[in-house]
Amino acid sequence: MSALDPGPAGASHDLVDVDIYDDGTFPEFGNNQAPGAAAVRAAARGTGPIPAEGLATRRQLRALNLSPGGHEPVARLRCRGGRRWAWLYRLDLARPKRIPTLAQERALDRAMAARQTCTQCGRRYHHVLPTSLKTCLECHDGTPADPASYIAPPAQHLLAA
Ligand SMILES: [Zn+2]
What we know:
By secondary structure, this protein is α+β, with helices and mostly antiparallel strands. Helix content is 27%, strand content 15%. The longest helix is centred in the C-terminal third of the chain and has 15 residues, at 102-116.
């Protein structure tokens, strides 16, 4: 066997782990080698405070209710003996994940209801009414509305409780 022949083991090794991005400038860390790895891991488990600095995977950021906030990964994490890897993001550049509050969702629903409800007959349509009219076409010019296109207005409470 010549010295240039890598042999069956070497040949199969050449077929995996081909990484066109690996130009040697991108930092790569093994498990628990990344800056702040232990603290990030504890925080993602909920057993520690969120560190101000360090590197975290996307999954870890999610566990901390954070997102990369638009910044590119700065390093990568080697997993499973180098066969898998994950992007690492900077914690100090991460942003809070946006979760609409119940109040915000209610406000959005109210706004939508206002645009779909006729101000004259009170029917709520499944489509948005013409903003110049604020009424349905039936109230505007008598064009009959398809009963399947709206929800009848709720019964009015006539009794003052
Ligand atoms: Zn109407």
